[in-house]
């Protein structure tokens, strides 16, 4: 499994627009075989950092998603929405290999 962590620098005046953009991707990514772990937006204080985390079975599966997404009309709509709103200023993408163990919280 490979997990992608995206660190966004967001425009605090456009958090509503950024949340709309996030919700688009929450629906889009699973269509391409990914598992979305969610977005995490600033909550308290003066933070301009948001996070997005999702996983794919392998880096090859991630690359297949990237190729398919480039041709998808709904992905094009999400990207057009970003270009229209400029709801984030930049992002950094990193990939991780998770090590899983016992749950942190008891159910």
Automatic annotation (TrEMBL):
Residues of the NIPSNAP domain: 6-99
Superkingdom: Bacteria
Regions crossing the membrane: none
Entries under InterPro entries matching the protein: Dimeric_a/b-barrel, NIPSNAP
Xref: SUPFAM superfamilies: Dimeric alpha+beta barrel (SSF54909)
Pfam families: NIPSNAP
Gene3D superfamilies for the chain: 3.30.70.100
Protein name as it appears in the record: NIPSNAP family protein
Organism of origin: Phreatobacter stygius
UniProt lineage: Bacteria, Pseudomonadati, Pseudomonadota, Alphaproteobacteria, Hyphomicrobiales
